[in-house]
Amino acid sequence: MGLNFVHSHFEKNFKPMFNLLFKKQLTIVAASNVRGFRSPPRSPLIASLIIRLFSSNSEIPCDQRKSFTVSYLINSCGLSQEATNVASKKVTLKSPENADLLLTILKNHGLSDAHITKMVTISPNILLAHPEKTVLPKLQFLNSIGMPAPDLAQLIARTPGILRCSLRNRIIPFYECLKNLLKSDKKVITVFKRATAYFLLNPLQRMPHNVAVLKKYGVDESKISFLAVHNPQPLLARSDKLVKLLDKVTELGIDISKSIFIQAVKVLYSTTKSSWEAKRKTYHKWGWSESDISMAFSFHPVCMNLSEKKIMSEMDFFVNEMNCEAKAIARQPTVLFYSLKKRSMPRCRVVKLLMVKGLIKPSCSLASVLRMTDKTFLEKFVVKYHNVPRLLDVYRGNLNLRDLGFDSRELARVKLL
User: Fold this and answer.
1) CA distances from 24 to 14, 30, 57 (A)
2) Which element (helix H / strand E) includes 363?
3) Measured at the alpha carbon of residue 300, what is the angle toward residues 305 and 284, in degrees to the nearest 5?
4) Which residues make Cβ contacts (< 8 Å) with residue 288, sequence separation at least 6?
5) Could you please report the per-residue DSSP string of 245-296?
6) Which terms does the record give in the GO molecular function aspect (predicted)?
7) pLDDT given at position 10
8) Residue of 29, 41, 217, 301 with fewest CB within 10 Å of its CB?
9) φ and ψ of 106, to 5 deg
10) 19 with 57: CB under 8 angstroms?
11) Contact call for residues 255 and 261 (beta carbons, < 8 A)
12) What 8-state DSSP symbol labels residue 34?
């Protein structure tokens, strides 16, 4: 009888009992080691038998893997029952050893329990990655370029897919490409901190080519670097798409030499054609011409990122209640971005009340009223005129001007410009 027969015989007849006895023996050995004693030596045959028995025992039987996976996701990774139901359909763990080592390595690199929960929720399959061959080298590389531990933890939690990208073929070439452009590890780290798997899946040769395209259009290196740090997606786009985007920017009247160019590129890149058309039609409903839209975009490009609902509610208030000219708003589109209920309505109603009563000049800059801090506005328009009846109620949003008995003709006399 060879060692294989002994192993097979133990597996079949004595393994359950042996498991229990072995666990007790481990407890005794551990206790004796604490007291300074060593366990008695074992023969090579027994040692080999124990290793083979318990290395095979580490793998969970097929019919138990599902329940083990669910238990592990909840107890070791902190997932909720709902998240576990989703995650357990995407991953099945054969044993705890690999996942335990992975979590230990991640925690040693600064990931908290909350980071791990987020990471596993986003990408349950990360638990199957090889801890030392796949995961550890990426963490060591990111450490080597100076990424702070808190930033590293947030990056991994938000974008666990980066741990599955090839270090040699994707991450290092991406780093070198950025370093060549930005000349600074600090700026490269900023890009990595904001990175998604998108950055690591696109052809890297696009970036140098797109940098050349931008230079051809007259964009200086400082703006290209700023774009790479704060909005690198266009640099990884197809070059023909980038050219169309740059042509659109100039068509809308944006001066490429000005800093607003970067914001315009970001908006145009992230806005679909259908979304752009929907915003155009919404502004047209308020009488804006194409030149008005271009003017508003050149002042504040993000006006084309507002939802149609937001545009309609803001314009309705300013035009129909505050008697502002719709086209005048195209010259100061920033007024559309403030909270209607928390800032625009209370402030504008207070100012209009004071204008109707003749306490302040009959015209007032809408943009300046909304732009100033809460403290400045309170001091200038509320505290100063605290004797005006119901002024504080208007500011708090409890009353509108019609509730105070003003008719439409009185209110139409004064305008916010």
Assistant:
1) 16, 10, 17
2) strand 363-364
3) 60
4) 296, 326, 327, 330
5) HHHHHHHTT--TTSTHHHHHHHHHHHS-HHHHHHHHHHHHTTT--HHHHHHH
6) nucleic acid binding
7) 42
8) 41
9) -65, -40
10) yes
11) yes
12) H
In terms of DSSP bridges, do strands 363-364 and 415-416 run parallel, antiparallel, or are they unpaired? parallel
pLDDT tens, position by position, 92-105: 998 899 999 999 99
Phi, psi (rounded to 5 degrees) for 94: -85, -30
**How far does CA 81 lie from the centroid of its chain?**
24
Structure tokens belonging to residue 30: 């551990």
Q: How far apart are CA 144 and CA 140, in angstroms?
A: 6
Length of the chain: 417
| C-alpha span between 216 and 211 (Å, rounded) | 9
CA triplet 361, 295, 303: central angle to 5 degrees? 85
pTM here is 0.69
Q: With the CA atoms of 233, 235, 237 and 238 taken in that order, what torsion angle do they form, in degrees rounded to the nearest 10? A: 180
Cα-Cα-Cα-Cα torsion 224, 225, 227, 230, nearest 10 degrees, comes to: 180
With both helix axes pointing from N to C terminus, report the angle between 149-158 and 185-193 in degrees, rounded to the nearest 10. 30
Can you read off the two tokens belonging to residue 56?
């095979």
